[in-house]
Amino acid sequence: MTAHTDTPGSVTTVYKVSGMSCGHCEGAVSGELTELPGVTSVKAVATAGEVTVVSTTALDEEAVRAAVDEAGFELVGRA
């Protein structure tokens, strides 16, 4: 499990996402994940197929999966 606490009250989790290939893809995934309650930061890296999410509490993986799906990509799991 790669979720860890950076500062008091924040959790950072790295997810593997398949299908991202460019900056537009990164923006689409980031935009959907930013809408989730508690998310404070999202950094998607298409070349690595990873998305780093910082949130106030641990996120429900099904909610993350639904957001990634809405962006048109597939959540593989945690990195």
> What characterizes the major β-sheet?
5 strands, antiparallel
Overall number of strands:
5
CA gyration radius, whole angstroms: 11 Å
Average pLDDT rating? 92
The portion of residues forming beta strands comes to: 35-45%
Structural class: alpha+beta
Number of helices: 2
Task: Tell me, briefly, the overall form.
Answer: globular
State the order of secondary-structure elements, H for helix, E for strand.
EEHEEHE
Helix share of residues? Answer: 25-40%
Distance from N terminus to C terminus (CA atoms, Å) equals: 8 Å
| Sequence stretches where pLDDT stays below 50 over 5 or more residues | none
Q: Could you please describe the fold and organization of this structure?
A:
This protein has 2 helices and 5 strands, in the order ββαββαβ. It is α+β, with helices and mostly antiparallel strands and 79 residues long. Strands 1, 2, 3, 4 and 5 form a 5-stranded antiparallel beta sheet that branches. It is globular. The N and C termini lie close together (8 Å). The model has no long low-confidence stretch (mean pLDDT 92).
List its traits.
79 residues; alpha+beta; 5-stranded antiparallel sheet; 2 helices
Summarize the structure.
The protein is built from 2 helices and 5 strands; from the N terminus they run E-E-H-E-E-H-E. The protein has helices spanning 23-34, 61-70, and strands at 4-5, 11-18, 39-45, 50-55, 74-78.
